[in-house]
């Protein structure tokens, strides 16, 4: 394959543990492919802010869409969903009449972060609920390009030990700032340290820091430092400006009282 083919083609991510680890390696091919499609769909969910109050990302994927993508009948889709649900990788939540079900996926239970205590993703074996055949939502695939490997995990080192309040899906979202937005690892580490040091152990707070930096195009620790300095200068200017206006107001009052 030529280098240009690699650059110009989009690829799906397929977790290796689906092929190597128990009980996941015993899943049928359709179930594994279904998980791959949902794994890829996370980026669209993040873009559309499809996550609940607990920060759990959910996806929309109708049976018809699965049938088209997997080139199979509805019965095969239902069977694949049951398989994923039985091993705790898929959970469905009904949203009421004429609304599509929310699909939640869980990650590998034995996290690759070896020096972090096991993360509780909040999923267990659940009773399978079939999906109604619903259309009307534009859920075009957005392909991810994440390099979430052992190098990234180990490079974050001790900082990851302070993130045992994040589940694996939330952790994956944080890692996407490296893989998708191109942030340096030490930038993510800096955000983790700020969040932990302030005792605000909340996914939304950590995500808001990284999202703010991402929107500013910040990718390096030097840019973070510069942004901090600019913020301090701006705050100092605001205080001085307020003090100056307040002094002018007081001075005006004193002059006025002399008449």
UniProtKB/TrEMBL annotation:
Q: Give the InterPro entries listed for this entry.
A: DnaB/C_C (IPR006343), DnaD (IPR053162), DnaD-like_sf (IPR034829), RepA_N (IPR010724)
- Which residue range or ranges hold the Replication initiator A N-terminal domain? 10-84
Domain of life, per UniProt, equals: Bacteria
Domain (DnaB/C C-terminal) spans 166-226
Q: Which PANTHER family match?
A: HYPOTHETICAL PHAGE PROTEIN, PHAGE REPLICATION PROTEIN-RELATED
Record family assignment: Belongs to the DnaB/DnaD family.
Task: Indicate what this protein is called per its UniProt record.
Answer: DnaD and phage-associated domain protein
